[in-house]
Amino acid sequence: MTTPVPPLTKSQFPDSFVWGVATSAFQIEGAALQDGKGPSIWDSFCRQPGAIADNSNGDIACEHYARWSSDLDMIADLGVDAYRFSISWPRVRPTGAGAWNDKGLDFYERLVDRLVEKGIKPYLTLNHWDLPDALQANGGWAHRDTVHRFVEYAEGIQARMGDRLASIATHNEPWVVAVLGHESGVFAPGIKSRATAAQVSHHLLLSHGLAVQALRAQRSQASLGIVLNLSPMHPATDSDADKAKTQLEDGKLLRWYMDPLFKASYPQDVLDHLGEDAPKMEAGDLKNIAVPIDFLGVNYYSRSVISADNSWKAGSTGLEVTDMNWEVYPEGLTELLVRMHRDYAVPPLYVTENGGAFKDAMQDGRVHDQDRTSYIQNHIAAVGEAIRQGVRMKGYMVWSLMDNFEWASGYEKRFGIVHVDYATQVRTLKDSARWYRDFLGQPQSQRTAAR
Ligand code: IFM
To answer: Which of 102, 146, 258, 401 has a 20 to 30 Å separation from 239 between CA atoms?
Structure first.
């Protein structure tokens, strides 16, 4: 395992750089139907036989709904500047339309107030995938009406607590919602239709643009943006077939989202590829999507290696792989950030998620997760390298604060820097959390001037 050279210090980053940890509502809260919360598409999807590897669900998860206060103490003890979390839409508006649920709104308002009290910036994500089930019954993200329900949701949250939020991201990883949720169907709502997936991606982007405009009209003080999951794509070989497939996959993952957001157009090669499955749009949609935003969040875990016949296997190049079977490839993060900066007129960037699932062992009350610690160190160093190459970076957030419900993998994959014993709900700082706390705790006096 390599460690970054020279040794990593916080002083290598601008003083204003924001360090954080991230979670999402469905993955940690539990309390699936408590205090008036409505069911989400993930509550229903978990009930489909075989949908989740360990047949689990989000009913209990990390019991964060009950334990939020001590969880915030733990976050504060890490010394982070920011906490990235999401609101469960059906907790605050159970059917996605109609009546709002005050108990749900109170929960998030208390959370935000306590963060502010502790000097931790609240970074909110509105949609981290748990769409109200009632909206799915009406067609979900494939139905244009959901776009307008999302805008109302954004407005309701802004009206209630927007004055205390540092940042609002409209969506987390729209590619995942569209493709894994509606094309391969391995995520909620489990639909398998390429045309539906394409329509969903368009509606997600449109709802982003319209929500940003609505929040600006409400004079939101929070910085507004969106979070994408991105990877550099590398052909497995120099063959023309591998290179052509790589170009198309790059179009489907990166340019399909970046082009409309920053160039008000969809990439022609992907439109050609989709043919009749391309999304139906209305006049003005692309202009509405490409509204100026204050930040772009990038979630990075690994590169993608593409072979025309899908024969490439992670680990075949000798690189370490995580428990998700994703290559550990920190240089890909620098490559990606530099490319975004070069190819698009991007606002300041954050790494809004980065981290690794590894098999952890609890020994005498400690988790010596050197693999995860090195992973995080090397990726932070990769962000530093992007800054040196001229990229405007604003922050870095570890995924995740604590072990949690890893979607279709259930509780089998652990991404946390804090270990969760699901039987007792005891939280234990892993060595990676201890390292991050020490790294963040570097006294201000040892920090150099902003670069
Ligand atoms: O756990 C997820 C998160 O919800 C979204 N980004 C990727 C993470 C790891 O798979």
So the answer is: 258
